[in-house]
Amino acid sequence: MSHTRPDVPDKPKPTLRLRVSPTAESILRSGHPWLFAGSVREQNREGDCGELAVVFDRNNKFLAVGLYDPDSPLRLRALHAGKPTTIDAAWWRARLESALAKRRPLFDATTTGFRWINGESDGWPGLVLDRYDTTLVLKIYTAAWLPRLSEILGLILEALAPERVVLRLSRNIQEQALSKFQRRDGEMLHAAAPDSPVVFLENSVRFESEVLRGQKTGFFLDQRENRRRVGELARGREVLNGFSFSGGFSLYAARGGATAAVDLDISAHALESAKRNFALNQTDVNMARCRHETVQADTFEWLRGTRRQFGLIVLDPPSLAKRETERAGAIAAYGRLAADGIERLLPDGVLVAASCSAHVSAEEFFGAVRQAAQRSKRPFRELATAGHAPDHAATFPEAEYLKAIYLRF
Asked: Comparing C-alpha atoms, which of 347, 408, 356 is closest to residue 386?
């Protein structure tokens, strides 16, 4: 006669405890959110993806707590540093409300596309939440969030009551997300998928966003303030929008009174989106009057091969330095690009040059563009420099990627 033993629940695992190098202690204590694997000196056990790990200092005192990822060189993303705290549902709810409260005063009904949560800079390391009208896009950059997805989704639904929520995954975690968590890039977390691109407003300009498969979360929300400035500079000018993507700068220029706008991009798909965005805004008299042209070409090559000139040129390439080893080459490329743009400017023309390369500092980027302007031998005046929009605020150096400079010749 056999005896079956009743199921005994597994004992809860002890708290995952880490000790780190003296340098890493100082970095975490300063509020920096990243701990790399090479800085971990010891831990009491193997850790699971997404569990909370506590870092203790050399005096055995609490230093920080964060999300642990055993499969990433970025081993811990800190959620909190300083005094010990309890991370429970109420803590997460308060952390979410803090991010939302910063944005509510920034936008009214004329802007329904913006960022609710900006990753580490809002205390949500490796996670962003973007709004496109009634659709929210949740994008995660570390698998450590995947075990917590249902919990986080519940908080978002409770706080914002969106029509739908889309999950986007960075490329580096897509394979792991599918094999270990059965999660896919572009899957619906809440409600059904939209049957067409989602349309939203930005300063009353209508745009479409490809939330399921588009770049970033479907649109480049971070350039909102620069688009607005371009609109203010565009009256009476023919505008060239290099690396145009879906035509954002051109639409603002058209609304601001540009006589013509040329969208230049290597992607036919992006240019078709630009055409649709112009079609969405034909009720605006200035946009309807502006002559819109699309050119499919490599912007670097086209600028060197054309003799056309413009009153305003926007050069906003994709990142030219995705890793530190590419930094020097990127700085040189930004300089060449600016020089080629300056050659195509009419007298009293305006160059707007932007960079989204985190490995190139603002000082290095602005320096490259200013040197190109000086080498042109044309008199010029610097109108402005710009960084991050308020909903994309950066609170630590690695988060500072966006910069733009405005020069009038």
From this structure: 356
Separation CA 59–CA 210 (nearest Å): 51
Domain ranges of the chain: 16-81, 89-198, 220-408
The pair of three-digit structure tokens given for residue 237, joined into one six-digit string: 């000018």
Supply φ then ψ for residue 102, to 5 degrees: -65, -30
Q: Give the whole-angstrom CA distance, residue 37 versus residue 207.
A: 41
DSSP conformation class of 89? H
Bridge partners (DSSP) of residue 352 are 314, 406
Q: What is the DSSP letter of 202?
A: E
Distance of alpha carbon 325 from alpha carbon 328, whole angstroms = 7
Query: 270 is written with which tokens?
Result: 């992006």
pLDDT in tens, 234-286: 999 999 999 999 999 999 999 999 999 999 999 999 999 999 999 999 999 99
Q: How far lies 97's CA from each of 86, 94, 179, 304, in Å?
A: 17, 5, 33, 50
Looking at the structure, give the CATH architecture of the domain made up of residues 89-198: 2-Layer Sandwich (3.30)
CA distance from start to end of the chain = 95
Question: Collapsing DSSP states into helix, strand and coil, what is residue 386?
Answer: strand
Identify the H or E element spanning 56: strand 52-56
CB atoms within 10 A of CB 234: 27
Q: Which CATH class is domain 16-81?
A: mainly beta
Angstrom distance (rounded) from CA 173 to CA 177: 6
* Cα–Cα distance, 249 to 242 (Å, whole number): 9
Instruction: Dump pLDDT digits (tens) for 219-247.
Output: 999 999 999 999 999 999 999 999 999 99
Q: Rounded to whole angstroms, how far apart are CA atoms 27 and 10?
A: 36
Q: Is the pTM of this model over 0.85?
A: yes
162: which 2 tokens?
């969106």
CATH number of 220-408: 3.40.50.150
Phi, psi torsion values for 368, nearest 5 degrees? -65, -40
